[in-house]
Amino acid sequence: MQTRHAALNIGDEPIKDIRFTWGGDYPRERRHLEGWGTAVEVPAVLALLGKVVAGELTAERARALLGGLAEKVVLACDPEEADPVKRALARCFGDCDECAARKPEFGRRLHAVLVQRERYRDPAAHSWAATRSALHRIDCREMEALGNSCGGLFTESGETNPEEYDRHLHWFTHDDCESIPGEGRTVLARHEAASWIAERTGPKGGERFRLCGNCQPERPDRA
Predict the structure, then answer these.
(1) pTM of the full predicted structure?
(2) Directed axis angle between helix 59-77 and helix 42-53, to 10°?
(3) What is the longest distance spanned by two Cα atoms in the chain?
(4) Closest to 44 measured CA to CA, from 28, 21, 71, 25
């Protein structure tokens, strides 16, 4: 949170030392208005409205003055706001054109995570899980991402959390964060785990995988 001070030299008594803050909550509903991301002290706003009531300036002029000061605060606190592209990106809540283009892929991959999450919830039928090159027990800490809300993407009942969906879609599209919480984990039944091992075992017995050193799973192909 950053603080800036400004003054409005209007009328007989200027409004001095107006306190603005920047870096708090960013409500998406007003993201395209001036000064988005800033807050201003209520007493200063009341003083400005008092000048409108007294006829010292019009409501339109008061709005323009307050908006102009807020924009100066925004630029002072975040110079990148001067770049139209970066300004638009900061106002994307997973609903820009670029996010819309990536949304089908994001949805498919999110569905795949949901499928693995449902399998994870049945450990009696799925006692193993695999990451990229390692086999784990289903209760390994490496699998915990499937047991929680996957970064808030899912509610306890397994439904998608709309607000978190939009947030993660934004990250997926813009922030070089193309992995989805819980992704990269495959939950396996015994026969699937045995097949997973077989696919990574060469004709001469060479193995292109490892057993997790933390959870130390039994080998399903030897049980």
Answers:
(1) 0.74
(2) 150
(3) 93
(4) 21
